[in-house]
Amino acid sequence: EISIIETFQHTPDLLHFRGKWQAVYDGIARASDVLILVEKAKDMTAAEKTAVIAQARFLRGHYHFEAKKMFNMVPYIDEKTYNPNDANSTKLPNDKDIWPNIVEDLKFGYDNLPARWSGFPGRATKWGSGALLAKAYLFQNKYAEAKTILEAIVASGQYRLVDKYHDNHRAVTNNNAESILEVQFSVNDGAGTGRNGNRGHTLNYPYGGGALTTCCGFFQPTQNLVNAHKTDATGLPMLDTFNAVDVPAENSVAYTGNLDPRLDWSVGRTGVPYLDWGIHNAGYIRDPAYAGLYSPKKQSPYKSENGSLTWSNNPRQNANNYRMIRYSHVLLWLAECEVEVGDLNKARALVNQIRRRAANPDGFVRLADGKPAGNYVVNEYTASWTDKELARKAVRFEQRLEFAMEGHRYFDLVRWGIVDQTLNTYLTVEENKRSYLKGSRFVKGKHEYFPIPNQEILNSQLGGKATLKQNPGY
Description:
By secondary structure, this protein is mainly alpha-helical. It contains 16 helices and eight strands.
């Protein structure tokens, strides 16, 4: 969350985000290439063409979604606009809200893709496109529309929560029963050094400590996130008071308060085993005085898997897929819809499914003597939910815990309209614990979205005038 604010403050040339812009519009161009060529194909049936068009439109919707949530006002480019032989064909103004276009593409995928592709787990499916469509509706606060699709996914019976939480974050359990939309990676596959591996996860490995030595430690968890995993005497989240007292960063394993066990799969903390690399300690951290003593953990491979089809140390890349949407997303999004336009106690039952899985002792991180690495106490909500605001807070808090360190929360805070108060409350406390946060503040009306890269604005010129307009405040 806060690294976004820091980048805003320390990147005055606004070029830092150009890679993201280029990646999404390159994906859009490739989708357009497919849509142009499929119409020219002479050896495909109508059904085969529809299947290809549906996949390409799903991808086009996905890439525009990524651009929209990052930069907000962005141009929508389709195969009718895009001309691969005319560099000026895509120089469109960013003066329209493209949500309707995104919805139209994703709905085409939802209506025309199969529920499964035999032997091709990475392909877009009806339910993957439907889940992303529901997410697009959530970003527009269209809860009733999202609810209908999410209920259909649940009713399909094709997905379930896997028994162990961590099985959603291991390469050896890629494409499991919980996976709905998963970006595929591979290593040691004969395709060439590092060609298909997950390089993004590599940058999130701990810096040292004899584990994944000298790389890279760029994604350190906050004290606030660690504190959010505390539970009260009844095993429920401390929704309002979790940050009053810190879980100790040094000798963290000695903390005797109640904790949600998901903490030790998301965060590396001192005294707790770091997968099978040994005990996490200060040596895992590049600069503890700068950003604290916690390491990212979800994205890291197991030492025992080096050289296998899941991890390569030369170069350091793994085959851990990116689970973009899994069944737990669907359940918690549906809980969110129930809070807003449905039944509060249906929302509670959905949240309890997530918490029931978290409470499975077979999924706990354990010490060498077999004892749990923390005083894990996580229970279900047993009292009826009657207060809508409390239910809303509980659902949102559960989303934070379930998807910690997975890149969703900032965008959730923006779509909920609470990003400024949440992050500024956070900063007021955390800046006294992390030196790099000193003086940071979130500016409402500016920091909700990233700046459009200056070079892309310059590149958009037609007749000496830029067609792209910069976001407010930059």
